[in-house]
Design brief:
146 residues; 7-stranded antiparallel beta sheet; 7 strands; 26% helix; Polyketide_cyclase/dehydratase; START-like_dom_sf; Polyketide cyclase / dehydrase and lipid transport
Length: 146
């Protein structure tokens, strides 16, 4: 498994930051490598809620279906999958002064015969980290100043 993680501080309150981040359809607003994130399941976010994602990785667009598998008042975890990769994405938000700290963790497992090259793909997965974290920080800070 390849794990990519990081945290950012924002000016947005923890409650508002988590409300925005847990609506996973907002991913395309902060992650430049995920241009499409559509809500499949109607209604408020809940365990079992599903999303259709299209992510760009190494120059190719890949579709995944994500499902919310854990949800509390400051934590959400989703499982995304297609035929070549399984991803577990976790978002944890905690208060920090008048703002918040958002921790994002993505764990990737390569499926099928390409699993053998998984260690070689770690740098490519790690290259997704900073653009996503910068997007989270900038998007949440813009919401705080709105």
């Amino acid at each position: 498994m390849i794990t990519v993680t990081g945290s950012v501080e924002t000016n947005l309150s923890a409650e508002k930051a988590f409300a925005f981040m847990s609506e996973f359809e907002n991913t395309s607003k902060w992650d430049p490598n995920t241009p499409v994130m559509d809500k499949i399941t109607p209604g408020p976010v809940a365990v079992g809620h599903k999303y259709h994602a299209e992510s760009e990785f190494r120059g190719k667009r890949q579709a995944l279906v994500y499902e919310v598998i854990e949800l509390t008042n400051n934590h959400i975890k989703l499982r995304g999958e297609n035929k070549t990769v399984t991803s577990f994405d976790s978002i944890d938000v905690s208060p920090s002064g008048t703002g918040s700290v958002v921790k994002y963790t993505a764990e990737f497992s390569i499926n099928g015969p390409f699993r053998i090259i998984q260690p070689l793909l770690k740098p490519a997965f790690n290259s997704l980290r900073d653009p996503a974290l910068n997007g989270i920080r900038d998007t949440l800070n813009s919401l705080a100043s709105a």
